[in-house]
Design a protein that fits this description.
alpha/beta, Arginase, Chain A, 8 helices
């Protein structure tokens, strides 16, 4: 049952910070949180109750495409924000790997363009995910922004980046802060945050402007997961957030960092 008070809906999402992004390009709203599974209610809040599902453009170290434990149990978006928020907190994987397919089950996300490098155990490996309601969803995976930009501007046979972007009515841009980290070769349990220059080279490679124009021209919201457990801890993730925010907000979105 939805609450019947005058509080804006996003204030009911504990642990989710909503930001207004005025004066830049692309989305006017951003949602920042720690565990990535809170993207599910944030996407519901951003999309509202009307309109079709959005294309998800996700930047992450991992392909968060593990199938939810009970796909048919994911509430439809029509069930309301509270139902999706509770499901994200109490039913989704605490590893934060199944929220994308859960959003497809909910009718929030149609296709997904996944810019990610690692495949966690149990991740869906196909190119098309058919949800429990029978709806197909294309999953287009590329390892880097550079590769996505190349596939958009100069598509080779089989490249689908331009196809999903051209077909999208609206876009959700999703960033996991651990996208800007690597695991140490000497100790795979040690996370190495990237310096700001490396973040810049990854996010804004040469000739990526047409790709970003296509993405940001349709983006209705940015979601940003800080994921301190995947970014070296609270202090390390805080420092990484500051470095990444300078590039993501000021240089890509052309607005002031939060």
């Amino acid at each position: 049952m939805e609450t019947q008070d005058d509080a804006p809906r996003h204030l009911r999402l504990a642990g989710v910070i909503r930001l207004g992004l005025g004066g830049g390009r692309g989305p006017q709203d951003a949602y920042v949180f720690d565990p990535h599974r809170l993207a599910l209610p944030a996407w519901a809040c951003a999309l509202g109750d009307t309109g079709g599902p959005a294309l998800l453009v996700s930047l992450d170290r991992h392909l968060d495409t593990v199938v939810p434990r009970a796909p048919a149990a994911v509430p439809d978006r029509a069930a309301g924000l509270r139902a999706l928020d509770e499901h994200a907190r109490y039913a989704l994987d605490v590893r934060n790997y199944d929220h994308i397919l859960a959003a497809m089950e909910a009718g929030l996300v149609g296709d997904a363009l996944l810019i990610a490098r690692a495949r966690p155990r149990g991740a869906f490996a196909g190119d098309t995910y058919v949800d429990s309601r029978g709806r197909p969803h294309r999953l287009v995976a590329v390892p880097t922004v550079d590769r996505a930009a190349e596939a958009y501007s100069r598509p080779a046979p089989g490249d689908a980046v331009r196809d999903v972007l051209d077909a999208a009515g609206r876009v959700l841009l999703d960033v996991d802060l651990d996208c800007f980290t690597s695991l140490s070769d000497a100790d795979p349990t040690t996370v190495l945050p990237w310096p700001q220059q490396v973040i810049r080279e990854f996010l804004l490679p040469e000739d990526s402007e047409p790709f970003w124009d296509a993405v940001l021209g349709k983006t209705v919201a940015l979601t940003l997961a800080r994921e301190p457990h995947h970014c070296g801890g609270l202090l390390a993730s805080g420092a990484l957030f500051r470095d990444a925010a300078q590039v993501l907000f000021r240089e890509l979105l052309r607005t002031e960092p939060p």
